[in-house]
């Protein structure tokens, strides 16, 4: 049981031995100790290196000092309580599957938990910085228990490139129904952001997911997205794969972007792409653009699923455009 739970907080607290002006240098070195974790952390939060530093510097020394002192005082008791919680949930979590581990990793305090896929399985990452700022360390056992239960539910819906077509179709349909429910009840104005998060969260080969909106102009303006920040925030119709999809009102599914002469590179990691126009009364309102770091990542099941998503978001896109300047 102990092998699935590890505390890496000790890698972070040496930041307190650095002068505050040297914290950015520490952060660079710190990330190198957990490369896969922070690669995904930055991607999922669409953070540039400068934005990461801004988030880090938003924490006061007093806050991190108090976290360190409380952590040093209580961590043995908390670890024992966490292990007891996991033991009580052992059957529900199906521990014997050995498909996840739990890591305590201090990060930027943005999220309480995050699921990170690795070659050996998933890491359920818990951020003590977030807990300290938003809850109480005494809640750690409950937080770990809830996160692992949520992971088990997540793993039953997660779409990967390894599952068969029948199971993939079933899982995409489950995800589509969740999106349909959110579209029906959401009135926050954040629907597009919620949808790109869901797509990124539940389909592990969707590595950059975003909406571009055009309105009456023939320029695609970047709206909600999840992934690495991109310089392509305004794309004219006809330019690149996105612009071609808008111009022709057709879906573009590109198994190998290196073969496309008109491809606008967002990241050297991108190997394949799918772009679907969002159309209302024969007018292009925008599009859904998804990049993958895997070659030939998308198939007809992805296309059908994402086409349905585009149909569902038309009212939200119209509302968003009514409030936009383009």
Descriptive report:
The radius of gyration is 21 Å and the shape is globular. The chain folds into two domains: 2-155, no CATH class; 183-322, 2-Layer Sandwich (Beta-Lactamase), CATH 3.30.450.40. The protein starts with a strand and ends with a helix. The strands form two sheets. Strands 7-6-5-10-9-8 form a six-stranded antiparallel beta sheet, sandwiched between helices. By secondary structure, the protein is α+β, with helices and mostly antiparallel strands. It contains twelve helices and ten strands.
TL;DR?
The protein is of the alpha+beta class. Helices cover 46% and strands 18% of the residues.
**Global geometry:** globular
Strand order of the largest sheet: 7-6-5-10-9-8
Q: How much helix, percentage-wise, in residues?
A: 40-55%
> How do the helices and strands follow one another from N- to C-terminus?
EHHHHHEEEHHHHEEEHEEEHH
Task: Average the pLDDT over all residues and give the rounded result.
Answer: 94
Return the domain count: 2
SS field, number of helical segments:
12
| Low-pLDDT stretches | none
In whole angstroms, the N-to-C terminal distance is 55 Å
